[in-house]
Amino acid sequence: MNTQRMALVIGANGGIGSEACAALRRHGWRVRALARKPPADPADRQVEWIAGDAMNAADVLAAAAGASVIVHAVNPPGYRGWGRLVLPMLDHTLAAARAHGARVVLPGTIYNYGPDAFPRLTERSPQHPPTRKGEIRTEMERRMREAADQGVRALILRCGEFFGPRTGNSWLAQGLVRAGAPVRRVLYPGDYAIGHSWAYLPDVGEVLARLLDREAELEDFASFHFGGYWLDGHGMLDGIRHATGNPHIKAGRFPWWFAELAAPFNETMRELCKMRYLWRTPIRLDDTKLRAFLGGELYTPLDEALRTTLEGIGCLPPVSRPTYAGTC
Question: How far apart are CA 160 and CA 284, in angstroms?
Fold first, then answer.
């Protein structure tokens, strides 16, 4: 009889999903991955790939059979279709978790918050988002809390701006630098003096796996903030300079004027402009609760995280290094 724990990762082709798969495998989980287009030649052949759509309730229900955890890491690409897709996809995950007795894990974001909660965000900070995307995120968490009251256990790990070697859909890869090219200039989206929270995706996956190793100790509705790195624009610029070994990288500013010009014709740019408020004030995630629960080191040194990311997105030549093994 196979008693190995099994986790279903929905959206396993994405940055968060792929790192969750890798981390759970390192921690001894059997991993099943649901994606519309499973890779033809997966890097980890121990992951069980299933073709399916998160918008199809039957696909999710079938994929979740035998799972004790469902990682809901699926998002519409490029901000497109949020109003139509996000909540139905979560509802399908919650229904599958209810049917199979699984805990749902949601990687959370700072979009839930408005200026009344800034600059330091704790698990108890008020959620009054000023954007429709933030309202949807808040509704996702409300539905998870409601489901937890009805017996579906939930875990939210809230993170700042994601970056990592296997995600192209991030501010670092699509805004600050140009993926696939040497870094000559950093286009920071805010005032260089304002701090912001950043989350390195391999660390996010590792922390999720460590939390799930202690699943029995978690509350039915558990929420943790992932502190990651708190950097202002100068700190990020210096980090990229150091990681690349190029002290001459210039400090630039993201062309919001262009995004605003394109917004009426491009949904991605339109949604991007709505989130600009997040770059106009300091935002820091307080990880006191997470540190107290897990202990040990949680975050990869910044220089290593940035170098690995820049290699992964094609800004630096790849260097062979050991597989990520966590920071503890």
Answer: 8
